[in-house]
Fold this sequence. Notes:
- Helix content is 0%, strand content 51%.
- It is mostly beta strands.
- Residues 143-212 form the Leukemia inhibitory factor receptor-like Ig-like domain.
- It comes from Ictalurus punctatus.
Amino acid sequence: MFALWSVNLLFLVSAETTNTLDLMSGSSESAPLRVEVCVKSSWSLQVRWTEHQNNTNSAQTYQVQIGQSEHLNIVAQTNVSKEAGVRFVSWVWTSALPLQCADHSIRIRRVPGSGDRTDSGSWTDWTTHYGQQNVSSNRSRLFPTQEVLREGSSVFFCCIPPDGARVTALRFSNTPYPLINISHRVRAIRVLGLNVTKIGVNLICRDDSGNKRAVLNYVTFPPEKPKNLSCETRNLKNIVCSWTPGREPNLSSVRRRRYTLHILNSDGVMFPCDKRSSSCEFPVLPDLIFYNISVVVKNSLGEERESYAFNITHRVFPVLEDMVVIPAALDAEVYWTLDGNFTGLQLTCQITMEPKNTTTELQCIGEECMRNLSVCVQQLQPSSQYSTRGRCAVQHNSWSSWSTTHTFSTEPLVTLDVWRRMEEENHRSGRIRVLWRTVRSQFSCLSHSYNTLHYSTSVVLQWS
C-alpha cells in the first residue's frame, strides 16, 4: 500500500475548570468520550472528541490513528496535545486520497507526555467515515470532480466502476497513468506537478464493459497579496481604491478570484469589488474623514489581504469636466465645471496654453468651486491655433491628472488700416480704389481692394 500524507491542525476550545485526576490510572476514564468525525472537504476530516469533565484541568497528549479501507490499513498516526482547562478537542486530518475513494476510520487514546512515566490509555472504538466504493451505481464515479486543485501539487485520482465492472484505464489530461489498487474495486492514479490551464483538465475512466466516463477539474494558484494599494476621490462623493493584483488569474466565472473591500473603522462595512479589474469604488461615508481599509482577495485555495489608512481630504484630486473655449482675436475665455462636494476646501486650478507655453491659475473655496469656472487667457495671436488643458489640486495636495486637451482657433483681426487710390483713366474720367488690411498674425497681413465709383467731368470731386 502506498503511503499517504497528512496535515494536522489543532483547535482547542476552553471549558469549565474541574478538579484534576490521574488520567493514566487505567480507570474507565482512560479513553476520551464521544469521538465524532465530519467531512470538511473532499480530502479533509475534522475529528472532535470530548474529555471527561473530571480531567479537563490537566494538559494531555493523544495519539490518533487513521485506518483506510475495511482492512484498517494505518495510513496516518500522529500526536495531538491539549492545554489544561480544555475539554473539547478538534483536529483536522487531510488525506492524499479523496475521501470518496475508500473508508477512513479514526481511533484515539491518551499517551504519556514529556517526562510522564504512566502507561498509554486504551484505544477508543473505531469511528468510520464511509467512502462510496460500496454504493451501488450503474456508471463509473470519478473523484475528485469539479474541484479546484493547486498548481504544482501531486494529486491522487480514483475511479469506482459500475456494479460488476472492472477499471481498465485512467487518463488525466489525455495522458494514461499506471493504476494503483485501492481496494478490490477501486483504482487510482497519481499525477505529479499539476500545471495551470485556462480551461478544465479531463479525467477519463474506462472499464471492461466498454464504458467511458469523463469529468473535469481545474488547476490554479493561491491569490497573491495586493500591492501598491492606494485610494483617492475626484469629487468627495465616491472613493476609488486601486492596487497591483500580481499574477493574472487563469480561471474565470465562479472559480475566479474575488476581491472585497472592508472599512475596518466603520463596523466592518464591506463592499464587493469588480472581479474583472484591480480597483474598487464605494461611496464616501457620512462624517468619516479618516479611513482604515483592508482589501481581501480569495479563491478556493486561500486568501490574502492588504491594509491602507488615509485622510480623505488629503486624497482629493478634482477632474476638470465639460471644458469649453470661447475665442476672440487676441484672447480666449476658458470655461469648465468640477463635479463634487468641495465644501470647506480651497482649490487651485491651472489652465495651460500651447504653443504659447503659459499657465493661468484660478483659486476658489467651497461652493465657489461647484459652479461654472472660467479664466481669460490673453496675449494670443489672431487666426492662430492653440490647445489647452487643465488640472486642479486641493489645499496644496498633489495635482490631479490633466484633463483632455481641447484645440481651438482664435478669430481674425480687422484693423482700421484703410486708404484710397485715385486712378485717372483719361482727362475726363477716373476711378477711386479703396484698400484695407486684415491682420492674420503678428508678422503678416492681407491687402484687399474695392472699386468704389467712377467719375466724369460732369462730377466735381475734390482731390486731396
